[in-house]
Amino acid sequence: MDISSVLQGGYQHSLSRSWQSRRALTKSMFMYPIFITDDPDASVPIPSLPGQRRWGVNKLKEFLGPLVEKGLESVILFGVPLNCVKDTRGTPADDTQGPVILAIKKLRELFPSLYIAADVCLCEYTDHGHCGLLHPDGTIDTAPSVERIAEVAVNYAKAGVHCVAPSDMMDGRIKAIKRGLIDAGFGNKVTLMSYSAKFASGLYGPFRDAAGSAPSFGDRKCYQLPPGAKGLARRAIQRDTTEGADIIMVKPALPYLDIISDAAQLAPDHPLACYQVSGEFAMIHAGAAAGVYNLRAMAFETVESMVRAGATLILSYFTPEFLEWL
Ligand SMILES: [Zn+2]
């Protein structure tokens, strides 16, 4: 056999196998998405997301305390308002007594070392379930949408969040949020993580169950990206870096590894996040339950593929498991 044919000598030991990764997985790469509802004592299982619950602020200590002990370093909050009055502009999004703002304050107090991000969107809070404000014909009215989303982001910053993460996909919102943060005195205090390449995916179903954020009519295809849109994704990533995003995100993750890889090349100087979304998580669980593969092995394989593609931060419902496994 030719010398150049022989590779196996290089990875015959578990340690030398670990050296084959450019970057090793660490606990700090994982950000845990959590659902906060407006019943302060809630601890309600979400059937379509195995092991995940909707939590009330009074339960955060018992929920997250053990995870922080195991090395949890960051969470991203999603508000699930079940009792508020929703309207056309998503007024409850930044209600000072709403679940997200109360949870930010509570978590800052309970866990001073925990990094707290908050998803910023209007769809959980609008009566029509869309991510922005609408024209009478049901299309997005961009300017007031962006203004409102920036206002919500600034109010989360005022509550003490470390990172705001707009997921709405409205044109121009990164620039507006960054300007808003700077003008309110948070330019050097709050990170802006953009859901830059967020695709109109079939993998969001369990999340919509969990967050109650399905649109009441139509879909989100006029603002989320078409699955085949590599070029649009690249343009969105480049736009958001120039508009002031501190972190670029690709969502979902596994079917879009090429986009993660593109983002790593287009924005090499930014941290790069990807979101292993609810449907990816549910799919891995379902496959494992059906005996197709081992859950842990597949969880590792999927997140390792994301890191290999260039991700430096992974939003995943597997975070509690990885705190045990790593
Ligand atoms: Zn939304």
What does this structure look like?
- The chain has a single domain (24-325), classed as TIM Barrel, CATH 3.20.20.
- The protein has 11 helices and 10 strands.
- It is globular, with a radius of gyration of 20 Å.
- The protein starts with 13 loop residues before the first helix and ends with a helix.
- Helix 4 (142-159) links the parallel strand 5 (115-120) and strand 6 (163-166).
- It is of the alpha/beta class and 326 residues long.
- 37% of the residues lie in helices and 16% in strands.
- An 8-stranded parallel β-barrel has the order 1-4-5-6-7-8-9-10, surrounded by 8 helices.
- Helix 4 packs across helix 5 (173-183) and helix 8 runs parallel beside helix 10 (295-309).
- The structure holds zinc ion.
- Zinc ion binds next to loops.
Q: What is the helical fraction, as a range of percent?
A: 25-40%
Give the overall silhouette: globular
Biggest sheet strand line-up: 1-4-5-6-7-8-9-10
Q: How do the helices and strands follow one another from N- to C-terminus?
A: HEEEHEHEHEHEHHEHEHHEH
Number of helices: 11
- Structural class determined from secondary elements: alpha/beta
- CA distance, first residue to last residue: 38 Å
CATH class: Alpha Beta
Q: How many domains is the backbone divided into? A: 1
> What amount of the residues lies in strands?
15-25%
Radius of gyration: 20 Å
- Biggest sheet overview: 8 strands, parallel, barrel
Which ligands appear in the coordinates? zinc ion
Name the CATH homologous superfamily. Aldolase class I
Question: What name does CATH use for the topology?
Answer: TIM Barrel
Q: Give the total of beta strands.
A: 10
Uncertain residue ranges:
none
User: What's the architecture in CATH terms?
Assistant: Alpha-Beta Barrel
EC number: 4.2.1.24
Function: Catalyzes an early step in the biosynthesis of tetrapyrroles. Binds two molecules of 5-aminolevulinate per subunit, each at a distinct site, and catalyzes their condensation to form porphobilinogen.
InterPro entries: ALAD, ALAD_AS, Aldolase_TIM
Catalytic activity: 2 5-aminolevulinate = porphobilinogen + 2 H2O + H(+)
